[in-house]
Amino acid sequence: MEINFKEIFTAGMILFAVIDILGSIPIIVDLRTRVGKIQSEKASIVAACIMIAFLFVGESILTLIGIDVNSFAVAGAFVLFFLALEMILGIRLYRDEEPKTASIVPLAFPLIAGPGIMTTILALRAEYQTINIVFAIVLNIIVVYVVLKLSGQIERMIGTNGLGVIRKVFGVVLLAIAVKLFAANVKDLFN
């Protein structure tokens, strides 16, 4: 296990694009107005625990139910592809019921540590050292925590149009990641 700053940076940027915490600020602000105070610390810690746990036991769980990592990665590429389309086109393909509380659900899971991030973590595990992915997760959780704490100020500073632009840029990045993930894993399904 070797710490590689390039791997940490690359994995961190991929996770950042998938988490899309800046693009989620309107959702966070809406949750805060509907359910009251959001516990930023609790949401960040729970999301980090989910991500790190999935990094270490996710593959074992898949093996237990008879799914190989390449199949999961290809399925994840489709999930990321549709998430990217939502971000770029400004449409909602996935709809969930209205939340009653926001501390853990839907903030920590599935908004921060949802199916897209779990798929991405397994795909990253196939390409990068585990220690570097852990550092990338921790760095992203720090960013998530700061954004959750400052979401109201960030929304006022950037504005609705600025958040829309950021969301679309990260959507294009996520679309490219989905295509790369699909291309890298689909050929292994037929070997």
TrEMBL record:
GO cellular component, one term: plasma membrane
Topology within the bilayer: Multi-pass membrane protein
InterPro entries per record: Multi_antbiot-R_MarC
Pfam families: MarC
Annotated transmembrane regions: 12-31, 43-65, 71-91, 103-124, 130-148, 169-186
Subcellular localization(s) per the UniProt record: Cell membrane
Keywords (A to Z) from UniProt: Cell membrane, Membrane, Transmembrane, Transmembrane helix
Family: Belongs to the UPF0056 (MarC) family.
Listed name of the protein: UPF0056 membrane protein
